[in-house]
Design brief:
The protein is an alpha/beta fold. It contains seven helices and ten strands. A hairpin with a 2-residue loop joins strand 9 and strand 10. Helix 4 (about 115-130) crosses helix 5 (about 145-160) and helix 5 runs parallel beside helix 6. The longest helix is centred in the last third of the chain and has 18 residues, at about 175-195. The radius of gyration is 17 Å and the shape is globular. The protein starts with a strand and ends with a strand. The mean pLDDT is about 95.
Length: about 230
């Protein structure tokens, strides 16, 4: 079974008395363990597509089925449950909680699911080991470099070992060395845990790592190749 199946999916947004079509007739399938990217210029619709896959938005037409759930038919509570149990998100702006330590930021997703404190601790330490940040466990976000902050966001996304990780321009604010280190970490996690990664990007640093490249222009898939 595919992890994600998108059929004839369209997304429109109302603008005044008319509509803007952000995505048009999208047909895509993603299998478990893929390391792939939705590539396109700014405004091409790639973040919208990522948000729909992540159940943060819903399609206007067609269907998007993620882990057996039709995104368009989920209630807000059901969508939140799908995200909290099965997905991890990595954003270009990190979205770390400034008043919390690195440990607390990574632990946060685990507080939303049924888990003992000891189980949470093991998973947090393991996730920080993956991204080589155990020495920063008590630091706060303002004490970290950009590369370190992004590695914390990766650890937070991976801590519950989700089936699917969605990464929206995760290296946009990083230099070449930090980008390479972060992408290497994600490739290793993809291999070790068979986690599916889907990126939205136009960053050449990311594109060179992708095993499958899906090009999006003006809301339409123009090519899809491994």
């Amino acid at each position: 079974m595919n992890l994600v199946t998108i059929k004839n999916m369209t997304k429109r947004y109302p603008i005044g008395n008319s509509e803007f079509t952000a995505l048009s007739n999208i047909n895509l399938e993603f299998e478990k363990g893929e390391f792939c990217g939705i590539i396109g210029p700014s405004g091409s619709g790639k973040t919208t597509l990522l948000n729909i896959i992540g159940s943060l938005d819903t399609p206007s037409a067609g269907s998007t089925v993620v882990l057996g759930k039709d995104i368009g038919n989920l209630s807000e509570k059901e969508a939140a449950k799908l995200r909290s149990r099965h997905m991890g998100f990595i954003f270009q702006t990190y979205n770390l909680l400034p008043v919390c330590t690195v440990y607390e930021n990574v632990e946060f997703p685990l507080l939303l699911i049924n888990m003992t404190p000891n189980e949470r601790k093991k998973k947090v330490i393991s996730a920080l080991e993956w991204v080589h940040l155990t020495d920063k466990i008590n630091s706060r976000p303002n004490q970290l470099s950009g590369g370190q902050a992004q590695r914390v966001s990766i650890a937070r996304a991976m801590v519950k070992q989700p089936e699917l990780v969605l990464a929206d321009e995760p290296t946009a604010n990083l230099d070449a060395e930090n980008s390479r280190n972060i992408l290497d970490a994600m490739v290793n996690l993809n291999k070790e845990l068979q986690t599916t990664f889907i990126f939205a990007t136009h960053d050449e640093k990311v594109i060179t790592y992708l095993k499958r490249k899906i090009f999006l222009v003006d809301g339409k898939v123009t090519s899809d190749g491994k």
